[in-house]
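We treat protein structure as text, and this decision shapes the records that our systems exchange. Below, we set out a record of this kind in full and without editing:

***
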Amino acid sequence: MGVTARGLIAGRGTFVLDVPTFEADDGGTVLLGPNGAGKTTLLLSLHGLIAASGVVERPFRSASVFARPSVLRGSVLWNVAIVATAVLGRPDGDVHQRALDILEGVGLGDTVDKDARTLSTGQRQRLAIARALAVEPEALFLDEPFANIDADARPALRALVSSYVQRTKCALVLATSSLLDAMALCRNAVVLQHGHVVHTGPVTTLGTANDPYAEALLAEASVAPTPL
């Protein structure tokens, strides 16, 4: 089951999001647009985390990751295991080993006994990714999921998420300003401006979007750094 919406309208303060139709499946859909365009509002609405009118359908078992995730009191391992146990309802031993394996996969294998509240922002983001994958979601909602993670670690984490999505056919919605994240994880793109969809189509067709933000994003990605 994918994530779909019809007649979705949501407001945050004076901002109004108006999206007539939306669809995301295991091919992944990236939400693009400038600051204030409505990317996060749309993602939160699709996940049911803020009120919205219209019809939204999504799998029951869904998970999200945000740029600045919260952590629970307790160890890093406990943060993953307690959430997975609550959602999956499996024996503690099974969940414990799964949590250990996933924490190793996100690069936190040496922090399992550490108090989660002492983690850096980037480590907390890795923990949030581990926690999301541990519940075996049928839909993932990711909002700048790698924003605070070291550049040399991002490829492995993108590959981890991509592998899970491809293996499980999990629906994926990604809000980001990173073209690398978009290309690595998503097949389709939705470009937003002022709360409205101005372009939909394969990520590979962003060059034909006739949108200034999409053009700037592609131009930035094509510029190689030069020595000072």
User: Anything to note?
Assistant: The mean pLDDT is 92. The two ends are 50 Å apart (CA to CA). The chain is about 35% helix and 25% strand.
